[in-house]
Specification:
The chain has 312 residues and is an all-alpha fold. The chain has eleven helices and two strands, in the order αβαααβααααααα.
Length: 312
């Protein structure tokens, strides 16, 4: 019963954090507005035209919520059914669901935290977007550009949400999301996709997801939505978010850790000796890792399987 309460509490905390983050992203909290930074009348970096976004907010959100979970579902299902283990539904289904919850849950929570940090930085810096002049359309007839830096001005654009978004250029949220999601997927594939016959498939998939992340970052420059420093800053924040998520939530994804793999082997051997082993516990993954990494572990795989001894 305690496990269910832990899951429920995790879901409640995640939903609350996600709801607050989305309200900040779409400027739905009127009392929270970015820092009102001024500009120079001759600042060429703010005079880019309005261009339709290649990847809008809805698309990047959908990609963040679908690509990684879909990859995890496919890979974990493959391992759950590898070597005929799908026949053991009672043990396999539980291990499958548990791994999905740990991995996807950690990914989603870390992603929400990363975007929350990005939004806080946007509010603090209030940097103007490259198309600020075109969207804001300041009333230059009422501005004395000879004063240099202009702090007091009025925009012809009256939509408060649009004006707030114009001041949220640094760091790039799209770049942070792309860096976080694609790097997390590359790390997951590095640890999880280890079967012999997919040795070239793994680096190929990792290359493709990194290229996708780079394309998303580059599109923000092509669409004149961010300055180069914004994209670099967003990518750094996203990469750090991925790193911290893997480090601090590693206990939630310990089934990808080789030391955990040895512990599972020892526990399964004891269960087999007592006649109480009822579950898969990722034996397929164990076999694939042992067959590939036997030289690193310093264990004779064939000998252990015949003798029934546990890994050291």
């Amino acid at each position: 019963m305690k496990v269910y309460w832990k899951v429920i509490s995790d879901i409640i905390i995640y939903l609350a954090a996600t709801a607050f983050t989305f309200l900040l992203v779409f400027d739905k909290i009127p009392v929270i507005r970015p820092y009102e930074r001024g500009f120079y009348c001759d600042d060429q970096s703010l005079m880019y035209p309005i261009v339709e976004e290649s990847i809008d907010d809805g698309t990047i959100i959908a990609m963040s919520l679908l690509i990684f979970p879909a990859a995890v579902i496919i890979v974990e299902l493959f391992y759950a059914c590898h070597n005929g283990s799908c026949s053991d539904l009672s043990g396999t289904l539980w291990v499958y669901v548990k791994n999905l919850y740990r991995t996807v849950g950690s990914y989603l929570f870390g992603g929400t935290g990363t975007i929350l940090v990005v939004e806080m930085l946007k509010l603090f810096f209030g940097r103007l977007r490259p198309n600020f002049i075109a969207v804001c359309r300041p009333n230059f007839t009422a501005i004395d550009c000879t004063q240099g830096f202009i702090r007091e001005f009025h925009c012809n654009e009256t939509d408060e949400e649009v004006l707030a978004d114009l001041r949220k250029s640094f760091p790039s949220g799209h770049s942070a999301s792309a860096a976080y999601g694609m790097l997390f997927l590359a790390v997951y594939l590095q640890f999880r996709l280890l079967l012999k016959w997919v040795r070239l498939l793994r680096p190929l998939l990792q290359t493709l997801v990194i290229i996708l992340g780079v394309f998303i970052c580059a599109s923000r420059l092509q669409d004149y939505r961010h300055h180069p420093g914004d994209v670099i800053g967003g990518a750094i924040v996203g990469s750090l978010g991925c790193l911290l998520t893997v480090i601090f939530l590693a206990d939630k994804m310990n089934y990808m850790n080789r030391s955990y793999l040895r512990k599972m082997e020892e526990r399964n051997e004891k269960r087999m000796q007592m006649g109480k082993y009822i579950g898969n516990d990722n034996l397929a993954f164990r076999d694939s890792v042992l067959s590939i990494n036997m030289s690193q572990l310093g264990v004779d795989n064939g000998q252990n399987r015949h003798s029934g001894t546990a890994l050291p």
